[in-house]
Write a structure and sequence with these properties.
With 320 residues, this protein is α/β, with parallel strands linked by helices. The chain is built from eleven helices and eight strands. The relative contact order is 0.10.
C-alpha cells in the first residue's frame, strides 16, 4: 500500500508539473501573440526604414561632409546664402568628385531630432528654420560660438538653456572677469560673455584655441600671462555681440564659430504674435505653452521607448 501511495504521489506531482508547464507555455504564447500584434503596426514602417538605411549608409560619407561643412563655415551667413552654398557649392563639389550624397539633404533634421528642437523652443528659441540652424551650430560646433545677436533672442535662449547648469554671465569690462573665467574653467561651468566688440581680450586666446595640457588625469590651460588654470571638459564659452555687422579679423574667425542670430521675418512674426496673444488673451498663451511642453515631453518619451524597444529586441536571447 505504501508503494502504491508513493507512485500515486509521484504521478500527481508529475501531473501538477505538466499543468504548470502548460500554463507557463500558454502565458508565453499569449505574450508572444500580444507582442506580435502590438508590433504589427510597426512592421511596415520598420521594413521600409530598413531599406532606406541601406541606401543612407551608402550616402553617409557625403552627408557627413555636408553637415560638417554647414556647421563649420555657414554660421556668418543668412538663410539665403546658406541654402545657396549648400546646394550649389558643397553639393556640387561632392557630386563632381563622385562622392555619394543625398540630394536636397535637410541638414537640420540630419543633425538633430524633433524632441531636441522642441526643448529648444521651450527654452525660448524661435521656431523658424534659421534659428534652428543657429541652435545646431551653437550646440554642435567644435569651436566656441560668437553670436551676432542685435535683437537679443540668442542670448535669451542661452540664458534659459544653461540656467540649470549655473551659467556665469559677464563682460570684458567687469573687474572680476578673470576670476569668473578661471572659476568656470576649473568647475566646468558654462560662461557667457555679453556685448563683445570686434576684438577679444588676449587672455582668452589659449582658451579659444583649446591649448589643453594633460598631466595624467588632470587637465589645465596656460593663460597668456603664464598662469596655469585647471580645465574641466564640461566648460563651454559663448560670446554675444549687439553689433549688427561686426568685422572680425581672419585670425579670430578661425578660432571661433561666428553665428548670425539676426531675427528673421518669420521669427519676428512668431515673437510678435506671442506677445500680442499674451497681452490680449493671456490664458490662450499659457495654454499654448502648456501644450508645447506636453508635446515635447511625449515626443521625447516616444523616442526613448522606441530606442529601448529596438535595443531589447536586437539584444534578446531566448524567450523575450
Amino acid at each position: 500500500l505504501d508503494a502504491m501511495q508513493a507512485k500515486f504521489d509521484e504521478a500527481m506531482a508529475e501531473k501538477q508539473r505538466l499543468i504548470d508547464d502548460a500554463a507557463a507555455t500558454q502565458a508565453r504564447m499569449d505574450a508572444a501573440a500580444a507582442l506580435i500584434t502590438a508590433l504589427a503596426g510597426e512592421e511596415v514602417r520598420w521594413t521600409e526604414q530598413s531599406k532606406q538605411f541601406a541606401a543612407q549608409i551608402q550616402r553617409l560619407t557625403g552627408d557627413c561632409a555636408m553637415a560638417s561643412s554647414f556647421t563649420s563655415y555657414l554660421g556668418p551667413f543668412n538663410k539665403e546664402f546658406r541654402d545657396l552654398l549648400l546646394t550649389r557649392d558643397f553639393f556640387g563639389d561632392l557630386s563632381k568628385r563622385g562622392i555619394p550624397v543625398t540630394a536636397d539633404l535637410d541638414v537640420a533634421r540630419f543633425l538633430v531630432d524633433d524632441s531636441e528642437i522642441g526643448e529648444w523652443t521651450l527654452q525660448g528659441l524661435p521656431t523658424d528654420e534659421l534659428s534652428i540652424q543657429n541652435g545646431i551650430m551653437t550646440t554642435r560646433a567644435s569651436r566656441y560660438p560668437v553670436l551676432v545677436d542685435p535683437q537679443g533672442q540668442g542670448i535669451n535662449w542661452i540664458k534659459n538653456r544653461e540656467a540649470e547648469n549655473n551659467l556665469k554671465v559677464t563682460n570684458l569690462n567687469e573687474k572680476r572677469f578673470r576670476d569668473i573665467l578661471e572659476e568656470s574653467m576649473s568647475y566646468g561651468l558654462p560662461m557667457l560673455i555679453e556685448n563683445i566688440q570686434e576684438e577679444l581680450d588676449p587672455i582668452l586666446e589659449p582658451v579659444l584655441e583649446k591649448r589643453i595640457v594633460r598631466k595624467g588625469k588632470q587637465a589645465m590651460i596656460v593663460l597668456s600671462d603664464g598662469k596655469e588654470v585647471d580645465y574641466d571638459d564640461n566648460f563651454t564659452l559663448i560670446c554675444t555681440t549687439r553689433l549688427p555687422n561686426p568685422h572680425y579679423s581672419p585670425e579670430l574667425s578661425a578660432k571661433v564659430t561666428v553665428i548670425d542670430f539676426t531675427v528673421t521675418m518669420v521669427g519676428l512674426e512668431d515673437q510678435l504674435l506671442g506677445k500680442l496673444i499674451l497681452k490680449e488673451k493671456n490664458e490662450l498663451e499659457v495654454q499654448r505653452k502648456t501644450l508645447v511642453e506636453e508635446v515635447t515631453t511625449y515626443k521625447r518619451k516616444i523616442k526613448q521607448l522606441e530606442d529601448d524597444l529596438l535595443f531589447r529586441l536586437s539584444n534578446s536571447q531566448g524567450n523575450l
